[in-house]
Design a protein that fits this description.
alpha+beta; 3-stranded antiparallel beta sheet; 3 strands
Amino acid sequence: MNLRKALWLAGIPGTAIAAYWVVFMAPLPFMAAWWDVDANRGTTLKTRYRIADRLVTSGRLDGMNRQEVIALLGDPVTDVTRMGKHDLIYVLGPERNFIGLDFEWLLIDFDHSGRVSRIEVATD
């Protein structure tokens, strides 16, 4: 087997893994139409989860007040007590594991001046 053929064959799994990550796992920028998918069922592409991951790492919500966050993300869930005390809670959908028994949530807290101080994705 020549070197060119060996490199080509070795590249196929790497390309497949990279494509899978981009399509199904890579964090996504915020787009309202993607965020507003049915959070109770989730979607095959897990768009709401991936947007939440990007919100956590990008710092986009840093410094926003409560009204600005709600204007961007919509109304939070108000009847969830199992997630503890957080200022805003958004349901993302069933856990991203093979067997999604629990749900994932976007948790947002504000500081004493009313600005976003903490944002995280958590599982109940």
